[in-house]
């Protein structure tokens, strides 16, 4: 069951959750808004097939990095997908997990902020990677520091710690 605002604020005060930088104005009734960072990765165009067998490992060679200054924007064409990161860094203890959710005001424009990886594992300390897709027939301009998603928090029954390759990820 997601936490309400008072529980979120207690968890931040007790360091169960750490958000850097933290802005209390971004805490809502049961979630915290996160803003878009300035680093993106676009999939490189290629005629070569990408093979996905067994348990594939993320291949960074398929992407090109794009850095967008705060006062500029990234142009996202209809049907395009780009990886982005949150401006805020999130650290969770080993008894807390979280979930990324999109914002309805963006979804109504045809913009999705995560395709399938909404779970944030316990014990992480990273900027959350967003799989941003433009489903609209219009080009969308993405500007850093725009509120892009919301994060909901929940307690685990027991303790766990994610030890995978993205535990301390800071880039898209």
Give an account of the 3D structure:
This protein has one domain (5-45, 62-155): Deoxyuridine triphosphatase (dUTPase) (Deoxyuridine 5'-Triphosphate Nucleotidohydrolase, Chain A). The chain is built from two helices and eleven strands. Strands 1, 2, 3, 5, 6, 7, 8, 9 and 11 form a nine-stranded antiparallel beta sheet that branches. Strands 4-10 form a two-stranded antiparallel sheet. Helix content is 8%, strand content 40%. It is mainly beta and 172 residues long.
What CATH calls the topology is Deoxyuridine 5'-Triphosphate Nucleotidohydrolase, Chain A
Number of DSSP-assigned strands: 11
Number of helices: 2
Radius of gyration: 16 Å
Stretches where pLDDT is under 50 for at least 5 consecutive residues are: none
Q: What shape does the CA trace take?
A: globular
Could you say which structural class the secondary elements and strand pairing correspond to? mainly beta
Mean pLDDT, nearest integer?
Answer: 91
Helix fraction by DSSP (H/I, runs of at least 4)? under 10%
Task: Describe the secondary structure blueprint for this structure.
Layout: H1 5-13, E1 17-20, E2 32-43, E3 63-67, E4 74-76, E5 81-92, E6 96-102, H2 104-107, E7 111-112, E8 119-120, E9 125-134, E10 140-142, E11 147-155
Antiparallel strand pairs: 1-5, 2-3, 2-5, 2-11, 4-10, 5-9, 6-8, 6-11, 7-9
